[in-house]
Write a structure and sequence with these properties.
Structural class: alpha/beta
Shape: elongated
Largest sheet: 6 strands, parallel
Number of helices: 15
Radius of gyration: 30 Å
CATH class of the largest domain: Alpha Beta
Length: about 450
């Protein structure tokens, strides 16, 4: 089970570190290409959100140095930022992927946005050919587990999100959102969720600015708000009491000089900024201005703590469910890993069986249909008995630890001189060469349960 994960998230790194790791959506294909060029990496996927940047990979040989990929891609020096990274290998990597997709590793346990974000990263990776076989199997199962967690537990009851927590914080700051005007910078899902919560809590007016004006118009129309051309951003933000910013900009878009301008426009009436972007949209220096209050994604964790107690019991149920699914996936994957050997053994022995029947046909003379059936039944019966022990042993090993399965597969392939599972083109002459060494009588000819005429 050669799965690997490396990354940073809200538990291991503050926002000023996470923003150094953030990868814009437009650069993900380039990053995936770089990942696949890394020694040992067969498949890969990258998830980059406001709370996490994680690299998933499957190696072809059980070895995968994702730290080297991080250093190469970001240009970090050895040891730089490594104290903020976490790593999971093999079965622990599988468990981590299941927990992330199920929102058990989220800042707000039970929130629904992370599953959509992982699915988007998966779609991008598949589109560029970075996800194909076993990693595809892992992620498909992770999505099924996430659905099971949400349907079999109450972890998503009264579901909250980063956006709803941000609104809750704004309500605590102002006491009430009645009559407050809100400015959304960005027209993504986070801002749309924030708009829904704000209106539900009494916000009077919503402005939306986005670099793509049509998207701003689309979001504003959903809530009877006003779309603002992005080039007029700095001239209009001062209208708002609350600014929620979530763009994909690689640098801050609100700096201290902008805050001074806004306060002058508002005649020093207070202004509240919530920055849910990574990298951050708002320079923390705005907090130094009297009348401006800035909260970033990490500040929201204080609000999240209030929700943890209510969800603890359901989270424990969800964790148990994930453990069961991890074990089930491990067994399924290990069984799948011995299937190529079983199929190869069946095909190999069937080839020998047919070759020996053809070789002996001249000695047997013309056979009646009943005699043909008898020969078929006899040779198949012998082969079924020959194959029973190796196949049973392979399947039993697959249900046990990975090392046992690997050892048994190697022994079976050596005993029967089978090609490696990933051989690009099996040699067609091998069975004929072997038949000359092995053939003496029909009883000595291995065969398979597969009917070559099927």
């Amino acid at each position: 089970m050669n799965f690997f994960v490396i990354g940073v998230n809200h538990r291991t790194a503050p926002v000023e570190v996470r923003e150094r790791f953030a990868i814009p959506e437009s650069r993900l294909p380039e990053a995936l290409e770089k990942l696949l060029s890394q020694d040992g990496v067969e498949e890969g996927m990258i998830v980059s959100t406001c709370n996490r940047v994680e690299v998933f990979a499957r190696s072809r040989n059980g070895e995968c140095d994702l730290k080297q990929f991080v250093r190469d891609y970001y240009g970090f020096k050895p040891g730089e930022f490594e104290q903020y990274c976490f790593e999971h290998n093999h079965i622990e990597a599988v468990k981590h992927v299941f927990r992330v997709a199920s929102s058990l590793d989220s800042m707000v346990v039970g929130e629904s946005q992370i599953l959509g974000q992982v699915k988007e990263a998966y779609a991008t990776a598949r589109a560029v050919g970075a996800v194909q076989s076993q990693l595809d199997m892992l992620l498909s199962r992770a999505f099924a587990v996430a659905k099971k967690v949400r349907t079999d537990t109450s972890i998503a009851t009264s579901s909250v999100s980063i956006a709803s927590v941000a609104v809750e914080l704004a309500e605590k700051i102002f006491g009430s959102l009645q009559g407050k005007s809100v400015y959304l910078v960005g027209a993504g899902k986070m801002c749309e969720l924030a708009a829904r919560h704000l209106l539900a809590h009494g916000a009077a007016k919503i402005y939306v600015a986005n670099r793509t004006y049509d998207r701003a118009v689309g979001l504003a129309s959903k809530f009877k708000g006003e779309a603002i051309p992005f080039e007029k951003l700095y001239d209009t933000v001062g209208k708002a009491d609350i600014v929620i910013s979530s763009t994909g900009a690689p640098h801050t878009i609100f700096r201290k000089e902008h805050g001074e301008k806004f306060l002058a426009q508002r005649r020093n009436r207070p202004m509240f900024f919530i920055d849910i972007a990574v990298p951050r949209d708002i320079d923390p220096g705005l907090n130094d201005l009297d009348g401006i209050f800035v909260y970033d994604i990490d500040d929201l964790q204080q609000v999240v703590k209030a929700h943890i107690g209510d969800r603890k019991r359901e989270a424990e149920r969800a964790e148990s469910l994930v453990e069961e699914e991890v074990n089930r996936f491990q067994q399924r994957l290990q069984t799948a890993e011995v299937v190529p050997t079983i199929v190869s053994l069946q095909e190999h022995l069937e080839t020998l069986r047919q070759a020996e029947i053809d070789r002996m046909r001249g000695r047997l003379g013309q056979l009646t249909p009943e005699q043909e059936s008898a020969v078929e039944a006899l040779t198949r019966g012998i082969i079924n008995k020959i194959m029973h022990t190796p196949i049973t042993t392979l399947k039993s090993a697959a249900r046990e630890q990975q090392e046992s399965a690997t050892t048994v597969v190697e022994v079976v392939r050596k005993l029967f001189n089978l090609h490696a599972p990933h051989a690009s083109q099996p040699a067609q002459r091998e069975p004929r060469e072997e038949q000359q060494e092995v053939a003496v009588s029909a009883e000595q000819k291995p065969t398979s349960v597969t009917n070559s005429k099927a």
